Amino acid sequence: MQNKQIYILGVGHNTEVYIDLAESCGYSIGGLYHYNDERTGDKIHGFQILDSTDNLFKKATLEGMAFALSMGDNKIRAALANKIRSKGGLIPTIIHPTAVVSKYAEIAYGVVIHANAVIQAGVKIGNYTVVSYNASVTHTSTVSDSCYLAAYAHVGALTIIHANVLLGQAAITVSGKVAYIGENSIIGAGSVVTKNVEANCVVAGNPARVIKTIQ
């Protein structure tokens, strides 16, 4: 177990989950940062909101400071992560001790894998991607940078999930039928995807179909 300090960026409904996750992985919580200063000084489970993210980034350096980013928005999470790294900060990969991650999987930088998730052999997970609790990725699939697999989502075998995709709660891609999900696409909760999804699409249903495109 690690014995390092970490700061949580983003104060919202997911903050408690990230506090619990970080502590489960041996981190101590140094404090929280909110997007504005309206709640500075407040506490969540005894951990203080230290300041706003704007003021955090006014520091000359974040050298040696580690952060976990609790926001679900893929593009915001990636932008903040890159800003932290540009100032010398760290975004450690955090894997809950109950997650099952194959030694033959490739896990990139700043990945978060929650409780009871399953990552099989041959899987590649890109930078800043979040795999929520009980989500799973089947063998020889790729989940690219800055994706979010919500709780109980399932990626079938031999599938490429391109960057910035949101796979909603309990949504699945069917092995052997889906080769790729295009970048920036959103797969609605509970959807069953049986064919490829192009970039910038919102799909939903069983079987999933395009309900709109993202401009």
From TrEMBL:
Chain coiled-coil ranges: none
Domain PglD N-terminal, first and last residues per copy: 5-84
Keywords linked to the UniProt accession: Acyltransferase, Transferase
Annotated substrate binding sites: 72
UniProt keyword annotation of Transferase present: yes
Domain of life: Bacteria
Gene Ontology molecular-function annotations: acyltransferase activity
Matches recorded under CDD domains: LbH_AT_putative (cd03360)
Stated name of the protein: Sugar O-acyltransferase, sialic acid O-acetyltransferase NeuD family
